[in-house]
Amino acid sequence: MLENRLVIVFAMEHYNPLGLIRTLGRYGIHPVYIAVRGRGVASSKSRYIRKVHYADTIEKGYEILLKEYSDLSEKPFVLTTDDDIQSILDLHYSELKDKFIMYNAGEDGRVTAYMDKKRILDIAEKHGLKVLPTVVTDRGVIPEGLEYPVITKAMSPTEANWKKNVFICESEEELREASQQIACSKVLIQKFIEKKNELCLDGFTIDRGRKSFIPMGTNYNYLIRGYYSPYMTAFNFKDEEMRKSLNEMFAEIGFEGIFSIEFIIDQDDTCYFSEVNFRNSTWNYIATHIGMPIPVLWCEAMLTGTIDETWNKPFPEHFTAMTEPIDYKIRVEGGRVALAQWLMDFKTTNVPFYLDTDDPEPFRAMVENWRAFS
C-alpha cells in the first residue's frame, strides 16, 4: 500500500530519527530526509535514505518541504521526531493539510496548545489519570503552600533550552536560588517524588483520536534523578483502565499521529501522568524488532481508516534496548558499573539504537564524533 507513496522524515540531525528511518527502510520504504543540522551527523548516514536535504534551521527545512514536495499527485507523509518541528507543521496545518499527511489535531496550533504542560496535565486529570500537584507562576514568584521537594519545568518543550529550566528544589531557599537561573517567564512547579521507575508508552491514533493503537510500554533498568534512563526493558501494554482514559483524552484533543506518553511511578506503584510527546519517539524503534513497525502501521492506518489488532505482537521477556554512548557515559564514565559489566549489557541488549550490522554507517559516525552523542 505504501510502495509508491513518498514518506518524508523532517527532523533534527542526531540519533533521534535513526530508528524511524531504519523502520521505514526495513519495510521497503526509502524516505526523503530533511535534516536540520544539529550536534552531530548520524541519521543521514543510513543506507535506507532515498535523498537527504540539509537545512541550517527549521524554517529553511520548512521551505524545502514546500518547494520540493508540495505538489505531488499523491500526498506524501511527513513524520517528525522533534517538538519544535512538529509545532511548526502544526501551526501551518491549514496551509499543509491538502499537500501532506502529517500529525495533527484538525486545526492550526491545536497540537502546540497541548504541548503546554499544565494544559495536558489538566486534560489527563479530567479523564481519570492521576497527576502530581502542580502550579504555574511567573519567574521569581514563589507560591505559598508548596510541599517540598519540587521540580521546576518550562511550560512547553518548544521553549529554547527548556532542559536548563529543570531544577529539583528541596526547600523554598533552593527554589529562590533556582529562580535566578530559570530563563522562561512562566514556570511550572510540580511536587517531586523519588520515583520507583517510569512508564513510557508508545503508539498512535487515527480518526481524530477516536481510534488508538498503544502496544508498547517501557520501564528503565536504572534510574537517574529528574531525568530519563538510556537503558530500558520493553513489554506489551495491558492496562485497560489507563488505555480507556488515554483514548478519551486523545479523542477530546482530536489528535491523529504517533505519540509517546510518560508516567512517573511512585514507590507504592502509583502511576502519575507526566506528559505526551506528539511525535515519533526514539523508543518506538524497539517494537520494529518484533515485527511491529509503529510508523509504518500508522501510515497504513491513515490510508485505510482502520487498525488491525493482529498488528499487536508479543514481546519476549526481558527485551532490552540501549542508547549506547549516553549509557556508557552515565554508567561507565560515571562510575556506576565496571566496563566489563557494561560490555556484557551492550552485547546482550536486544535493540541498540546505533549499532546495526545491516546499516553500519550511523554507528561509525557516532564513534568518530563520540562526544556529540554522549
Q: Report how far apart the termini are.
A: 38 Å
- Which radius of gyration do the C-alpha atoms yield? 20 Å
**How does the helix and strand content classify structurally?**
alpha/beta
Q: What is the general shape?
A: globular
Description of the structure:
- The protein has 374 residues and is an alpha/beta fold.
- The protein has 14 helices and 16 strands.
- Helix content is 31%, strand content 24%.
- The strands form three sheets. A seven-stranded mixed beta sheet has the order 14-13-10-11-12-15-16. Strands 3-2-1-4-5 form a five-stranded parallel beta sheet, sandwiched between helices.
- The protein is globular, with a radius of gyration of 20 Å.
- It starts with 6 loop residues before the first strand and ends with a helix.
Describe what is shown at a glance.
The protein is an alpha/beta fold and 374 residues long. It is built from 14 helices and 16 strands. The strands form 3 sheets. It has a 7-stranded mixed beta sheet.
Pick out its properties.
374 residues, alpha/beta, seven-stranded mixed β-sheet, five-stranded parallel β-sheet, 14 helices
Please specify the SSE layout and strand pairing.
Blueprint (H helix, E strand, L loop, with lengths): L6 E6 L5 H9 L5 E5 L14 E5 L2 H12 L7 E4 L2 H9 L1 H4 L4 E2 L7 H4 L3 H10 L7 E5 L11 E5 L12 E3 L2 H8 L6 E6 L5 E10 L4 E10 L10 E6 L3 H14 L3 E9 L5 E7 L7 H4 L5 H11 L14 E4 L1 H10 L5 H10 L2 E2 L8 H8 L1 H4 L1
Parallel strand pairs: 1-2, 1-4, 2-3, 4-5, 15-16
Antiparallel strand pairs: 6-9, 7-8, 7-9, 10-11, 10-13, 11-12, 12-15, 13-14
